[in-house]
Amino acid sequence: MSGFEKLSRREFLQTTGIASGGLVFAMTLGYPRSAAGASNVAPSVYVNIRDDDVVEIYCHRSEMGQGIRTSLPQVIADELEADWDRIELLQAPGDAKYGDQNTDGSTSIRKHFDLLRTAGASAREMLIAAAAMEWGMPAAELVARNHAIHHEASGRSAAYGDLVASAAELEVPEDVTFKDPADYRYIGKPMDLIDGVAMTTGAGIYGTDTVLPGMLYASVERCPVFGGTVKSVDDAKALKVAGVEQVVQMPDGTSPPGYNPLGGVAVLASNTWSAEQGRKALAIEWETGLNAEYDSASYRQQLVDTSHKEGKTVMNRGDVNAAFGTADRVIEADYYAPHLSHAPMEPPAASAMMHEDGSVEIWAATQDPQSIQGTVAALLGIDKTQVKINVTLLGGAFGRKSKADFSAEAAWLAKKTGKPVKVSWSREDDIRHGYYHTVSAQYLKGALDDEGNTTAWLHRSVFPSIGSTFSAEATGPANFELGLGMIDNPYAVPNMRLESGDAKAHVRIGWLRSVCNIYHAFAVCSFADELAHEAAADPRDYLLRLAGSPRKVNPADDGAEYSNYGQSLDVHPIDTARYAAVIRKVSDMAGWGRNLPDGHGLGISVHRSFLSTVGAVAEVRVDGEGKLHVEELWIAIDAGLVVNPDRVAAQMEGAGIFGMSLALHGEITAKDGVIEQGNYDTYPVIRMSEAPKAINVHIMDVDAPPGGVGEPGVPPVAPAIVNAYFAATGKRVRELPLKKAASAWLLQCAPSTGGRSSA
Amino acid sequence: MAIEFTLNGEPQSHDVDPQMPLLWVIRDIAGLTGTKYGCGKALCGSCTVHVDGNPVRSCAFPVSAAAGMSVTTIEGLSANGDHPVQEAWRELNVPQCGYCQSGQIMTAAALLERNPNPSEAEIATAMSGNICRCGTYTRIRKAIYRAAGGES
Fold it and tell me: Are residues B67 and B89 in the same domain?
């Protein structure tokens, strides 16, 4: 859906400001005015030009660290020929008129580039038409340049602000002409962060920073087991805690959970600390329900057992069984990756306030304001149009803040108490009650001929589906999930079969930065490395062999349903030439093949996701105590056209660290249905002391439409590290996090090094 | 009994539970939201402020311990957001989501106050209590060198 809404002059005149209270962000699009002497003109919902020469740009995507509040206006301002110093960026509220606002799937640029260009270009052409009308000249003789329209022959010019009144008399052009990319002034340039000052002075307002008049601070105790309910609650002690004003039992969670609140008991107080102290004083008896049997160790065995049985075939090429029968060598491997938590630095937080007309207004760190409108409307029994969403900055998100549950908690409590309410999750709430990245077991089997070529590839993937969060019927991997890194396998292997196996969910499953690509890339890129070593080949050279001849791969040719991230394969192909170019580039950057000190190893991994291809090389060092250090990372990305190369580089640097966190540390486990981790001590992430000395990024110069950027850097990192660890030690790790496997070896090795002994 | 201290130079007097962490007094009572909550257990550094010049994790620092002391938050680090650390952060476009950066900047500023030319190991030691989930560490390191007058 284009999401682009052209406002005719008449429609624009009907546009009126929305009373927001203006507490966090301005919420109005345009201002009421009369036609004569218009003080502004809004050619689309994304652009409003004021007669003081300021161009307002509405960012309808959420800022969570990817830099969209800088790169989105780069696109619009470029096509509009606006002066960067005379634009004002406003955060759009949740509203269907902006089209798709769901900031996930690395879509902000790749799906909206043309929309944003159109927003800028239509405004530019409207201003040209306005000048043409004022001056009585043909529009074709006029050009837009640096915030003004010029008639080159006569030297006449007018600033944008001076053309507002005339432009307001005109219709928005139906068709627009985009700029020649050679004339881009912002697109492709490393523009500084729009929010740089706010983010370095404490002035940036995040979800947890909202302050509303007379607001109560809420802290919610939720059942330790997913799906459990409150049997009884004694709040006498909680109500005696200084500052505590109310204790409220939340409505029970739903099955399937969807985006609804999880239930539990809320303590509301005059400040966060009092609410938390009151919560500790609650005495609650829980009905824990069926998920109280969820145990990660036994569940893992179930997944592995399933992966060893024939599954549902989702793609088939040739005849793998015949190829295994005639192979020179056959290798098999089991890969396992655990649940992960997003653990953004800002835990979920939202505030809500009821208005006298029965509408509710919410301020939230949300990736998806329109889904909050839907969830809250259903929960409160009001219409979506009565749910106003102000989008704050997000203190990290990684998929967690796509979910409306915490905003719905705030809205429900605001209605229940009749007061403005802020709901802040603690770190423990965040880690123990998340929408977890799923747990997976994968079985791979490969055949080699006597020249070391891979002749057959069998891959089975078993995991509880994201779909289980929304439907009780979703008992196994969905096709879209298998399309994230399994079905889109680019390898030139003549016999290939891809299968899935069912698994039931016992926690809420959600998407986490790069989603199923994390575990699929871990298995696929590790197994490619295993095949290389089995073939006694260099892993980089072997990857090029697997990539095969330059061609465009279409999984449908082998019977697979494949959605290619919602885009045409003609526009965004699985192009093995581009894949091979990334292999060559990233390995060259890392000095692949150079002599390494003892204990060092290089590992390579390349993976396409969200329409971009990213290659990673890791150099690891294993010290005398067996401890792994990631010394340096090299990352090359082919994302087609790039709007802001500095933000793309930043995303790759961040993906390197995020990928390291899940490779080395990340693991969520359940015992008796209770999540065993709770804070950064039990769910560690990478710190400065573990950061590589450098993360070297190269952006491939490719003339192609933009691919995704926020997520594609993550998948290749873990397998690059695992492959480097093998190169350094000869030990193959087939489960994440790597630290766990490595420490098990350490313990095994311990007696011989004299470091440990058993009593 | 009211607890008195100064906050960015302004005298404060708050009649609150003496065990209330300084973080919540700063955020919920004094109304300065630049200092962030991240863990509540001094594990992540998002809440770092200066107490008499020393970097302190305010989420695990009872307000009573600040009595009579001078507390500085990100809002008070410099008059116009122009502390050399803040400027270096902007020159290198360090922030991604930005949420942890108040704490990162306060820790880095305190480090450079004590040690104007820290080594890589000294930076790692000083900064490892501050988590950045977006993963801006390599830029933070460069920005500290830059603020120290080094090459980056």
Answer: no
Nearest to A345 among B93, B99, B141 (CB): B99
Identify which of A608, A607, A492 has the alpha carbon closest to the alpha carbon of residue A550: A492
Q: Does B93 touch chain A (CB under 8 A)?
A: yes
Domains parsed from chain A with CATH numbers: 9-196 (3.30.365.10), 216-293 (3.90.1170.50), 296-340+435-746 (3.30.365.10), 348-424 (3.30.365.10)
Q: Which domain holds residue B12?
A: 3-76
**Tens-place pLDDT, residues A419-438:** 999 999 999 999 999 999 99
Nearest to A513 by CA among A437, A442, A461: A437
Token digits of residue A29: 């699009």
pLDDT along chain A (759 residues), means of 10: 36 30 29 59 96 97 98 98 98 96 95 96 97 97 98 97 96 92 97 98 98 98 98 98 98 97 98 98 96 97 98 98 98 98 98 98 98 98 97 98 98 98 98 98 98 98 98 95 98 98 97 98 98 98 98 98 97 98 98 97 98 98 92 98 98 98 98 98 97 98 98 98 97 92 60 34
- The structure tokens listed for A244 are 């505590």
Q: Which of B35, B53, B76 is the last residue of a domain?
A: B76
State whether B7 and B71 are in the same domain: yes
Is the Cβ pair A650, B93 closer than 8 Å?
yes
d(CA A668, CA A512): 13
Query: Could you read off the pLDDT of A379-401 as tens digits, one per residue?
Result: 999 999 999 999 999 999 999 99
Using a CB-CB cut-off of 8 Å, the residues of chain B touching A695 are 138
Check CB contact under 8 Å for A687 and B93: no
Altogether, the residues listed in chain B come to a count of 152
Per the domain annotation, does B103 fall within a domain? yes
Q: Is B117 part of any domain? A: yes
Q: Are B128 and B93 in a shared domain?
A: yes
The count of domains in chain B is 2
To the nearest whole angstrom, how far is the Cα of A497 from the nearest Cα of chain B? 37
Residue B152 lies in a domain: no
Residues B53 and B92 in one domain: no
Mean model confidence pLDDT for chain A: 93
The CATH number that applies at residue B127 is 1.10.150.120
Q: Which residue of B has its CA nearest to A193?
A: B93
Cα separation, A182 vs A478, whole angstroms: 43
Q: Check A395 against B125: CB less than 8 A apart.
A: no
**Which residues of chain B does A394 touch, with a Cβ-Cβ cutoff of 8 Å?**
97
Does B59 share its domain with B118?
A: no
Question: In terms of domains, do B55 and B88 share one?
Answer: no
Last residue of a domain, one of B19, B46, B76: B76
- Which residue, among A389, A405, A388, has the nearest Cα to A347 in the 3D structure? A405
Contacts with B124 from chain A: Cβ below 8 Å? 688-689, 691
Decide if B90 and A192 are in contact by the 8 Å CB cutoff: yes
Q: Which residues contact A140 (CB under 8 A, 6 or more apart)?
A: none
- Chain B residue numbers touching A426 (CB-CB < 8 A): 40
Per-residue pLDDT of chain B (152 residues; tens, 9 = 90+): 799 999 999 999 999 999 999 999 999 999 999 999 999 999 999 999 999 999 999 999 999 999 999 999 999 999 999 999 999 999 999 999 999 999 999 999 999 999 999 999 999 999 999 999 999 999 999 999 999 997 55
* Partner-chain contact A650 B34, CB within 8 Å: no
> CA-to-CA distance for A93 and B117, rounded, in angstroms?
45
Distance from CA of A542 to the nearest CA of B (A): 31
Specify whether B11 is located in the same domain as B72: yes
Residues of B in contact with A64 (CB under 8 A): 97
Residue A598 CB burial class (10 angstroms; 0-12, 13-18, ≥19): exposed
Do residue B21 and residue B55 come from a single domain?
yes
Is residue B23 within 8 Å of residue B33, measured between CB atoms? Answer: no
Q: Considering the domain boundaries, does residue B21 fall inside one? A: yes
Determine whether the interchain pair B81/A197 forms a contact, defined as Cβ–Cβ distance below 8 Å. yes
E strand segments, A452-588 = 454-462, 495-501, 552-553, 574-575
